């Protein structure tokens, strides 16, 4: 099918990292002893964080509510499915759980019937079209396929048998060709509790009507209780139908998940069930009631996970409010990786406000990560193990920071998958390692490789990067023809040699011009950024995206032209005076210009730092900070005096303002710059 073609790589086995234990999954007795990792998750059933312990060892049976396929997927879907994809990857890669994920596709529903009739398309073909669109969007976001897909239309016999058992157990009744769940009988049994997730919504007619669907609201007179919900709906003329013991009809919304999850997992309770927070009532509460009525058990699910809402500028996303953002619209401006990073920077189970500022922050975080990997590649190329290896204070300091970050990251991941904190800790480690790599003479590759492996492992656990790579992949891995790969670089080298020979008689200036041309015009087309590092220092090269590099150079050229125009506007007398100074003391002039460039670079770097991270980089001044990021103790551990606190608060406010201005500038440039990063995604066939 088209869905299978979209995700042919989904079922390829992946190597799972086992952390520091040396124990592989096939060496463990799955059901013999509880598998405890220290992980605690926010469980909607208990309204608190519970220690996560699967029923069968390290095997995790997870049922995820999938899409109802009748329209394009939007950023609310991205919030939900990306969030749970990140959690799944962390559980598999970091905690070494063996996750069995089953996800349904609702391809029989009132919304699908109404919409397919509106556009005059055959019901099942209409649903399959939007299912394929959904999986295409998920692939673009890097969301893994579930282990099993269950379509409602393929489980009609199992759903009918499931309903028959519920009737037999005394919790449902047939009425005029439909079947309804008997809520009062369920509550009166003394064995069960109804509406565990949202007991306050039990009598809410608005939420009830959402659960019954547009085509089922007129059937209230057939019920013993107006809040009884449909397990099987009698089909009217023009609606899809299947034969059943109660006449032609179709499944109700809630029954599909209960029947299909039970078919796949065979027993109760299952470990995990997930979905958006808006599904808690009536959908998930009704699912649990049906399943507990079927199994005659008090508990069908051990851990219920609900992702938080996504709002657009503080409002619910709605086409009527003109703030509806589809996944494909978002991907025209940003890459799937950037949207994933944005998701990682917010807690999965709280409301997330999607604003103009959110994405530029994610783009900047991607840039910081990518620049770190580029710096690491340079350090690995330019250094060897032949240097003295005895550790000095800088080595010990960085190694101790790594241990501290590893400990904090582990605690954060155990604390309900707290990825925002993890991203901050990784940035702290990356900042320190970038500074460490600048001192090439004393750099120890053993420490760098250890840090690099750790950061890659965490980012792999988040789905930001693949196995066995340093940095972000720009394209899908393919078999490489070595000669074809080196041809463009050898052509450039050969041409450069020819030009040097032809212009050798022109003296040093001609040679310098050719070198500049190679750096600024030729190599960028091959995706090579050549960076000069000052007098006496060898240049370094970095492999980057060619289009992004062209855009970067174009921006620099525009700034240069603008600066030249500004200089022309200055009074002629001022230019003449500067000209005289240049003739008298050109070395001093050059020194001033370099100092000015350095100050400007430092100013721009400062603008990029959020206020809550600004002081944390000043480890030579401060040692402790409050939750807001304000320093509370000096470098010696002494508490800051009141006047010192006032001073840092004022500086904090200034930093907030300049960072906000920088964010606004980034937003204006984001669409133009980030579209060139799309090739960094692993692409479609």
Number of helices: 22
> Strand pairing plus helix content: what structural class?
alpha/beta
- What order do the strands of the largest sheet run in, or round the barrel if closed? 5-4-3-10-11
Terminus-to-terminus distance: 16 Å
Rg estimate, integer Å: 31 Å
The number of E-state strands comes to: 18
| Oligomer designation | single chain
Main β-sheet description:
5 strands, parallel
Shape: elongated
Q: pLDDT below 50 for ≥5 consecutive residues: which ranges?
A: 1-30, 475-479, 573-583, 671-685
Please indicate the percent range of residues in DSSP E strands (runs of 2 or more).
5-15%
**Residue-averaged pLDDT:** 85
Q: Helicity range of the residues?
A: 40-55%
Protein model, in words:
With 685 residues, the protein is α/β, with parallel strands linked by helices. The chain has 22 helices and 18 strands. It has helices at residues 2-6, 75-94, 110-119, 123-140, 156-168, 183-188, 205-212, 253-265, 280-295, 327-333, 336-344, 358-382, 393-414, 419-438, 445-461, 482-503, 508-522, 546-568, 572-584, 586-607, 611-614, 642-674, and strands spanning 40-43, 48-51, 59-64, 98-105, 148-151, 172-175, 178-181, 230-234, 249-251, 270-276, 301-307, 310-312, 315-316, 352-354, 528-531, 540-543, 622-625, 631-634. The strands form 6 sheets. It has a 5-stranded parallel β-sheet, with helices on both faces. Strands 6-7-8-9 form a 4-stranded antiparallel β-sheet. Strand 15 (528-531) and strand 16 form a beta hairpin. Helix 2 (75-94) crosses helix 15 (445-461). It is elongated and about 100 Å long. Residues 1-30, 475-479, 573-583 and 671-685 have low confidence and may be disordered.
